[in-house]
Every structure is written in structure tokens, then in C-alpha cells.
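Predict the structure of GNAT family N-acetyltransferase.
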Amino acid sequence: MSGDLRSGFERVVTERLELRAVSLDDLYGLFAITSDPDAYRHSPCDRHTTVDTTRAWIERAAARWRTDGLSYWIVRRRTDATDEPVIGVGGVQRHAAGGWNLYYRFTPSAWGQGYATELSRAAIAAGRAVDPQEPVVAWILDHNHASRRVAERLGFTNYGERIDANDGVLRLMYADRPPRDPR
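Done. Here is the predicted structure for GNAT family N-acetyltransferase.
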């Protein structure tokens, strides 16, 4: 795909969350999460140690809105306040192996409140609307039990350990339907 795609999902409101296409406007709010060691308890090597790392991550994610019509959102709680802090990031992006990659990261103070499930449901719906032929896949580290529970609540099936084509890491592959190449 090429050009500037508009999917209509650049802003989504759920029951408790406001989801907006990731942009550099939220650089420091997102860096507070991506640099927090507690937020990366399950994958400490992925934590951002500089604001420039977060800036580059945002630029790549923002570019996906233009090329694929869908990418990651900045997450805030729904309120009337215009200065509500960023509590997370997530959504779906095209994955190197095909399909939609479901991803989220929240500040630890937002954990355990169902936000990951709420965000994920919106992301799955958006992915299916933009390209319903592609499965939605969550690549989860075996020891990340909280994310595994989210995938199970979503009705995803665990297809076992696979090498994640995006980074070469062995992860569990959960998906909303059988992947094109299950092995």
C-alpha cells in the first residue's frame, strides 16, 4: 500500500478510554511509560533509555497510519479534562509475518483495571474493519501471565511458541483465528 490512507480510526472513544493516533505531541507522556522499569518488567531490554528512542518509535508508528491506514494509539482515560495524562499506548499494526500485530503498554498504575482488554477490543474491531482478511495476532512472552489472560479473555487461541518475525524473539502466538502459516 502507498499514499496517505485514512481509515477513520485516528480517534476512537470506548466506554472509558480515548484513543488517538500516536504523534509526537505525546512524546514526553509516552516516554514516562516507555522508560519506566516497572512497565517493562516482562521485557527489561525493550525499555527506552532515551527520549530519542521514544521519538523514533513514535515516528515509525505514526508513519504506519499513512501507509497502512492503522497503527497505534495514545491512550487516555475519558474525562472532560484536556490535560488528562497518557496512561498507555497500543492498537494494531501490520506485522512482518502478515496479519495485525496487537500491542499495548500501560503505566503500572493503570494495570488491573481492564484497560488492556478494552483497548484490544477496539483495536481488533479496527483491524477487522480495515482489512478483515488478516488475523489479529498477539505475540506474548511465556512468562507474561497478565497479557496471556488478556488474550484468553479476547477469545484468542494459543498457537504455541513461534519466532516473532519482527524481532526474532521466541514468543507465544495468540490469534483470533488460525494464522496463514501456523508453523
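The chain has a mean pLDDT of 90.
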